[in-house]
Amino acid sequence: MIQVLDATLREGEQTPGVYFDNHIKLAIANLLDQIGVDIIESGHPIVTAEIYDAVKTIANKGFNSTIGAHSRSVKKDVEAALECGVDFLGIFYCVSDERLNGVFKKDLNQAIEQISDVIQFAKKEKPNLIIRYTPEDTVRSSFENVVKAATGAVKAGADVISIADTTGFMVPGTKNNFYDYVINLRAALKENGCEPKIAVHCHNDKGLALANALDGYRAGADIIDATVLGIGERAGIVDLAELLVVLTTNFGVEKFDLAKLPELYKLVSKHSGIPVSQNYPIIGENAFTHCAGVHTHAAAKNPMHYESLNPELVNRERKFSLDHMSGIASIKFALKILDITDLLPEEELQILEEVKKIGQRGRTVELSEIPLIVDSIKHSKHFYKKTK
Length: 388
Ligand code: HCA
Ligand code: CU
Hints:
With 388 residues, the chain is of the alpha/beta class. The chain contains 14 helices and 10 strands. Residues 11, 166, 201, 203, 232-233, 237 line the site of copper (II) ion.
């Protein structure tokens, strides 16, 4: 069964200007746990003492989700993570010759030795620790180097190899696609006697993070990384709500409580300072609002005409927006909801005219305004008669 790893508290905090206070981190972890996310990457403990405390608190809260920490391929990072009591450790190190030679002044064999030493150390300290090794920028590095490093890591005790598209480079249907990458990596590792779980970490630089992750999933990936609001470095990674909804509704994965998603997004949006755009899928204000008269008319009769997702699944409501796009069906529908039954057909048309005028000025008419418009129309009529 596919596992979802949420990295809001690690990758998400790599968004410029985003930092969650420790009690907010705990509240986010709490909701992720209730939703049923399999793994929560709670932070990189060596970064600051406060993050260390947050990781420790979350790891000791007794959540059902497996709690993980991020770690460079150095012993002191691993020691800090182990002190925090995490059950999952994500170790990363690059494998491209350019990066290794240029930044770390190492060759691949020295890098593999370092990765293996650190993994062996971690496994010895905590034998049931789940260890993920990520060759950073996996998909743009030489495949041969990735296989060599991943093989070394698995032989040293790594349980998961993550394919990181660190720069959002992959495009489904081209020669650089996740489907082929997962198949090829699994086969190459198997040839070397290694059968780790495969994770996919997809950045969203071209808006293809979810498509790439699903491409990897179709090829048999075991773990998919995501964050709330898709936050992370630059354009971020896979959006958690989109991923969970697609896994649930299109791939028959029935283990997530999607009804908690709006609450989680509200919390993360508030404390990250990143607003949810109105047209954001699933969570945005307009995600379940029908506007044009033709749509409203059909959707009021049967929502499936203009919806492929039931709002109730994610604890949202279907709405109908009244503006210049509205038709008489929209008005009749609004009046029915409001239980206003005593209007003449020409009065209903007058309401429509009024709503269209307001809409043209760039504003949406809320349902609660309709009785006011009715009142105004009746009053103006009365006034007109009297002065005549
Ligand atoms: C990073 C880069 C990373 C690592 C992913 C991982 C990436 O911020 O350190 O450790 O699995 O995208 O490569 O997020
Ligand atoms: Cu990343």
